[in-house]
Amino acid sequence: MIRATRLLRVLVVAPSRYPLRQPHAGGLEACVWDRVRWLRSRGHEVTLCAAEGSDFLGDVEEFHLPTPAWTRPEEASDTEYPSGYAAAVDAAFDAARERLITDRHLYDVVDNHSLHAAPIRWSRDADIPVVTTLHTPPLEPMLEASADLGDSAHRFVAVSQATARAWSVEGVDAFVFPNGIDTDQWTRGTGGTSWVWSGRVVPEKAPHLAIEAARSADAHIVLAGRIGDVDYFEQEVVPRLGVHARYVGPLRQPDLCRLVGSSAVALVTPMWEEPFGLVIAEALATGTPVAAFDIGGVSEVLAGIPGSATVMPGDVVALGTAAAELAAQGAREPLTRVWTRRAAVRQHSLAQRYREVERVLAHTSQPVAARRVPAVSW
């Protein structure tokens, strides 16, 4: 088993659309924020390349990436860019690459979480080892970049078996390293009577279906998260708010933990190939049971954990029934929350997952002759 035998100098590359800070824009931003914090706590020297306004940014201007500037707030979107933004990001990554080439001696490895193709090519252009984590289904620009690497020192890891399979079909092979959460911050709650949904308020996360599921079971549900698609929110979510549903906006982690932990059950309603679903692990760590649509990597996150159920994607009646049963079980058997949290800590704790990642970063940073495939368990 290969372990980190020395402290590393790591350049972490974050997704560029939103700053890394609380309240987190989404699960991806939360994961990278935790990654920087954890690597530094382990003594590694970490430099961050991320959107302007992020926590942990240093004084290397070329590693400060632009954020979208929308003319009107209602135009803000998680899937579209304002005019000129894509070109600005391309230029920013060009500048970051040139700075990296100049300062190559300052870094051992790049820990890449960007959804942009450019950092993938840095292993070739800057002759630096790169570990790219695949957080999404295959993206064409990233596939094209992966085909240009030649024999450069590059390793791909994926956040779930489902994600790894999807990329493998497109010719990119990846080890599987599921995401982790800080179970010291996501603490066990006391439960409650309301249901909860948390995450990005976007069509592919489908919070409107969570409202429908709660309504089908005559339950009340609280929704929390950043609005990533204003049109969708206004058309599909707002009309459903009222007696059965309340929206509380984006919350910082402590407040979100209290909300989720004081709920009877958490609903997770992806209508896309969900790569991981960090909100699942977060809810389970509070002891709150989870009822979810079975798609993408969802079943992997729930595997072996009590207090969980999956149904076919889109079946709101089945979801409501499953959630009601989990809520009733929790009310009858309070120790279920204890068992659920224990299983979540064992399976999803940040420390367990990131020690594996630490080994991969250390392994990838070694000279070619010294590399062997690390022994990894998941």
From TrEMBL:
Residues 26-185 form the Glycosyltransferase subfamily 4-like N-terminal domain. InterPro entries: Glyco_trans_1, Glyco_trans_4-like_N, Glycosyltransferase_grp1. Residues 198-302 form the Glycosyl transferase family domain. Keywords: Glycosyltransferase, Transferase. It comes from the Bacteria. Signal peptide: none annotated. Pfam families: Glyco_transf_4, Glycos_transf_1. The keyword Protease does not apply. This is D-inositol 3-phosphate glycosyltransferase. It comes from Microbacterium trichothecenolyticum. The lineage of its organism: Bacteria, Bacillati, Actinomycetota, Actinomycetes, Micrococcales.
